[in-house]
Write a structure and sequence with these properties.
heterodimer, A: 523 residues, alpha/beta, Aspartate Aminotransferase, domain 2, Aspartate Aminotransferase, domain 1, seven-stranded mixed β-sheet, 13 helices, 13 strands, 31% helix, B: 447 residues, 2 domains, four-stranded antiparallel β-sheet, 14 helices, 37% helix
């Protein structure tokens, strides 16, 4: 196939026996072909009408830009079209069920978007006088109060900017507490189950801790005997990082024992709250012996994932860790609410984690979500999320291989056992789902289950939508068992076919350059 | 509940299909003492959209929006006009409600916009490669310091006295936890070049900012030379991305890593977040970068496509050996940045930057004409520091009473540094001649 410089085929060609035909325009029905802005824009175009500069003599002191940026502009109609065309190459929750396990892809209510854009929230500056932003401070306080009560924890650090940043907040608080006890240099070992999210060991390592992995038991939970063996007569354990419900979609039934063991060994209990959606309103982590837990507002509390953020990761802290919370803190004074912004005013605090006060745009959205649901609705959220996952597990059990016996929490986990000797692999099942109009499930995670397929439907799916999804996945599972070769090359109907990731990594091209056309004719 | 599609009949049918009596069966592993019998105590029940809207609107009205009157606050976040189409674009369902593009066949929209963003940021900063965003400028700065230590295998970081104190504090937090020594030079309005003298053979990097917290522009080239002579890297920081339309770029100054805040392009003030951290470096350090990278490749039909790449740097593959723990970054703000930048183009950006600079020149002239005011910033883009005979907190409070939000007192950011009479004020294209007149008139009344 030949193509022009913007990646469009220049002839109509039917390919490999499918009914997919290429067109002269490169477009296919509603799916419009679209080049890069560097191919379609130009430096003499702009989509903004600005006032004409007066011609004031510059006071830049000679620190001036040498070469122009060379960046192309587009007028508004061209720009809008560019991004709308790109958008149509994306799958999204608003299109259908998005079963990514551990990601909690629930509906993003539009009221949240509306309130976040009120000028009193969107158009206020983090450094303007505090007397002029009392409503913003009240939002933070009100949300903090909800988070503390929902978790039964006494304090919350609001500034972390995502889940992994919240993990960092928790582990830095643990580090500060150990230093205050005079054990900062001796307690360096952090226990992390092999099933943990990658962010857990990465975070602990960033804080100077050494990772000690704990095995999973055959039932998908922490191997209690392995844990105990790592605590025998030890005085070097800083703590444990444990996800609950865990990444196998199961509740750690020995969690109180685990908390007691860690505390008895002198360590702290960090709980990864990524899966809080399964228990919100029904179980409070503070009742389980947790010392710190981050809450992904972009998971449990519905702020949009936005194609990879922004997130927000407020981190609740126990009495033992609360004194070390990062600045800024909010205090009540006679004149209203006020930030404590400096270390000097909060000497025990481990310091600052980011500029300003956290993800305010996520706070307003999460608060609108929480107020909409209330304590009763949030309980229903957890119950429906768990019910939906168990329904998927029950429906697919006859055709696929559940990783563990019994019920699951908010996500159903399957292994690739049913694919044995078929030649079909987990990735083929995932890509097959794309042709059926669904985003794939989380695949090959957690690492403790072979060829893992982790499905989290969330509570915002109707029964009809769940049935449709189950019908599609069941059909793929049947085709796999029948060794349908078309699965190996799926997807066939998506905006792109399987992409060559090896080639991308071997000779990285991370930006467009004019010298070397980014597209060569098909090889 | 308007967000929950299951009906009571659905729930009963589903329980029957599963073979469970009630949802309580699913929570059987929860310790009995931790099972709540009803809703969490001490919290209200659900509310309609009308009631929540009313409550949130009421809270929002307790805040004074930047657009409500004369407004001159900067110090790391800037009030700029955002084209209406930008907010429309980022609210497209397909961008707003999708995940990190782990499945490239159905995420080319996000991936192509990332690739365009990386190209724009590299061109803007004059650097060779850019990643697909960090949380914000401050965390990008902290990650740059840690990365410099990885690259040089050294363990000391030296920060200028003009680096935004929140950036310095964020960097110190991350570095100290990683066992990295941090040296911070004394606060100085025009002291970035001190880094050239401070750099030593044990330093992994020096971190300088231009324009710095006080608005001062500095050509960091001598700092780059001095750092390189000692085997250290230059990390160049900016908090006002629009400045790059006019001022010497980090790349032109010889920076090895350049990081900054991208909020000024496409992202609203939003009381401090979410913002978008820009992270760039020389190509040779590419594999030491934190965060996501999008790269070009082809699909099975040979068509151009984009994927997340070099992920062996990242936590989900490398776990405790990863270059950073970052996972979710600032995707939608990245999209806002790239869409706004596309609307601007080189032409629009240069014009926008010029308007900002002219507004700051006008502000400086108007304030300097007020008795007792002394402009302290020698070279500036759109932000200046000035002193008055009275304490800055009193002056700003009195201005506020006249509905002029006059800037930030330096002592809020540098307490105890003897800068009690210094105010930092920014002027962007949003500031009108009338706003500047109102500021000068109000200030004359106060002093």
């Amino acid at each position: 196939m030949t193509m022009n410089s913007t990646g469009r085929p220049t002839s109509i060609t039917a390919v490999d026996g499918t009914d997919t035909a290429y067109t002269v325009s490169g477009s296919r029905g509603l799916l419009q072909a679209e080049g890069l802005i560097f191919e379609i824009g130009s430096t003499d175009k702009t989509g903004v009408d600005l006032a004409r500069p007066k011609g004031t003599k510059a006071r830049l002191g000679g620190v001036t830009r040498g070469a122009p940026t060379g960046l192309p502009g587009l007028t508004e109609p061209e720009a809008v079209r560019h991004y709308v065309r790109l958008s149509q190459r994306n799958y999204a929750i608003d299109l259908g069920l998005f079963p990514l396990g551990s990601c909690t892809m629930k509906h993003n209510p539009r009221l949240n978007e509306k309130v976040a854009r009120l000028p009193g929230f969107a158009d206020v500056h983090p450094m303007q006088p505090q007397a002029t932003v009392q409503g913003a401070l009240e939002v933070i306080e009100e949300l903090a109060d909800w988070l503390c009560k929902l978790t039964n924890m006494p304090a919350v650090a609001m500034s972390p900017k995502a889940g992994a940043h919240g993990e960092l907040a928790g582990m830095l608080a643990i580090r500060a507490a150990l230093i205050a006890r005079g054990e900062g240099e001796t307690r360096k070992r952090v226990l992390v189950p092999v099933s943990a999210h990658g962010t857990n060991p990465a975070t602990a390592a960033q804080c100077g801790f050494i990772i000690d992995e704990i095995n999973a038991a055959p039932d998908g939970r922490v191997d209690l005997e392995d844990l105990k063996s790592k605590l025998v007569e030890s005085s070097d354990v800083a703590g444990i990082m444990l996800t609950n419900p865990n990444t196998c979609g199961l509740f750690e039934r020995d969690i109180r024992t685990i908390a007691d063991l860690i505390h008895a060994a002198g360590g702290y209990f960090y709980c990864d709250g990524a899966n809080f959606n399964a228990i919100v309103g029904r179980v409070r982590p503070g009742d389980l012996g947790v010392d710190a837990m981050h809450i992904n507002l972009h998971k449990t509390f519905s702020t949009p994932h936005g194609g990879g953020g922004p997130g927000s990761g407020p981190t609740v802290l126990s009495e033992a860790l609360a004194p070390y919370a990062p600045v800024p803190l909010i205090v009540k004074t006679a004149d209203g609410l006020r930030f404590v912004e400096h270390h000097s005013e909060a000497p025990d605090s481990f310091g600052r984690m980011c500029a300003f006060h956290g993800q305010m745009g996520m706070f307003t959205r999460a608060l609108a979500y929480i107020l909409s649901h209330g304590a009763d609705g949030l309980r229903q959220v957890a119950e429906d999320a768990v019910l939906n996952a168990n329904y998927i597990l029950a429906r697919l059990k006859p055709l696929m291989s559940p990783a563990f016996e019994g019920y699951c929490m908010h996500e159903a986990l399957f292994s690739d056992g049913f694919l044995k000797d078929t030649g079909v692999e987990t990735i083929d099942i995932a890509k097959g789902l794309i042709d059926e109009g669904y985003h794939p499930m989380t695949m090959y995670f957690p690492l403790v289950v072979h060829g893992a397929m982790l499905i989290e439907p969330t509570e915002t799916e109707s029964k009809a939508e769940l049935d449709r999804f189950c019908d599609a996945l069941a059909s793929i599972a049947r085709r796999a068992v029948q060794k349908d070769p078309s699965l190996k090359s799926a997807p066939h109907l998506a905006p792109a076919r399987r992409l060559d990731e090896t080639r991308a990594a071997r000779s990285p091209r991370l930006k467009w350059t004019p010298e070397t056309p980014t597209l060569k004719a098909a090889e | 509940m308007r967000y929950l599609p299951l009906t009571a009949v659905d729930r009963a049918d589903m329980l029957k299909a599963i073979g469970a009596k009630s949802v309580d069966d699913f929570y059987g592993d929860v310790p009995a003492a931790a099972r709540l019998k009803g809703p969490v105590p001490g919290l209200p029940n659900h509310q309609g959209e009308l009631e929540v809207d009313r409550h949130m609107t009421k809270l929002s009205r307790k805040n004074r929006a930047a657009s409500d009157g004369p407004f001159f606050v900067g110090c790391g976040a800037y009030k700029h006009h955002i084209p209406a189409s930008v907010d429309h674009i980022i609210q497209r369902s397909e961008f707003l409600t999708t995940y990190t593009p782990y499945q490239p066949e159905i995420a080319q929209g996000t991936l192509q916009s990332m690739f365009e963003f990386q190209t724009q940021v590299a061109a803007l900063t004059g650097m060779e490669v850019a990643n697909a965003s960090m949380y914000d400028g401050s965390t990008a700065c902290a990650e740059a310091a840690v990365m410099a230590c990885r690259v040089t295998k050294r363990n000391t970081v030296i920060m200028s006295g003009g680096l935004h104190p929140h950036y310095a504090d964020t960097t110190r937090t991350l570095c100290e936890a990683a066992g990295i020594r941090v040296i911070q030079l004394d606060p100085a309005i025009d002291g970035e070049l001190e880094l050239a003298r401070a750099v030593t053979e044990v330093a992994a990097c020096v971190i300088g900012q231009s324009p710095n917290l006080f608005g001062t522009l500095t050509d960091l080239s001598p700092v780059a030379d001095a750092a390189h002579a000692k085997g250290a890297l230059l990390v160049s920081v900016f908090t006002e991305a629009v400045s790059l339309g006019l001022v010497k770029t980090p790349g032109e100054m010889g920076a090895d890593i350049a990081v900054g805040e991208g909020q000024s392009i496409g992202v609203p003030l939003g009381f401090g977040g979410p913002y978008v951290g820009l992270f760039t470096c020389k190509s040779k350090f590419m594999r030491q970068m934190p965060g996501r990278l999008c790269g070009e490749t082809v699909d099975a039909d040979g068509k151009r496509g984009f994927v997340l790449t070099l992920s062996t740097r990242e936590q989900h593959i490398r776990r405790d050996k990863a270059t950073s723990n970052i996972c979710t970054n600032s995707g939608l703000c990245m999209l806002a940045f790239t869409a706004h930048m596309t609307l601007l183009g080189d032409k629009g950006l240069t014009q926008l930057a010029t308007l900002n600079h002219e507004a700051a020149c006008d502000l400086a002239d108007a304030l300097a004409a007020v008795k007792g005011v002394k402009v302290l910033t020698p070279r500036y883009f759109n932000e200046i520091a000035f002193s008055t005979p009275k304490p800055a907190d009193e002056v700003l409070a009195a201005l506020e009473k006249q509905d002029v939000i006059g800037g930030v007192r330096a002592s809020r950011l540098f307490p105890g540094a003897g800068m009690d009479n210094v105010i930092i004020a920014a002027a962007t294209e949003c500031v009108t001649a009338g706003d500047i007149e109102a500021y000068a008139a109000a200030l004359a009344k106060v002093l």
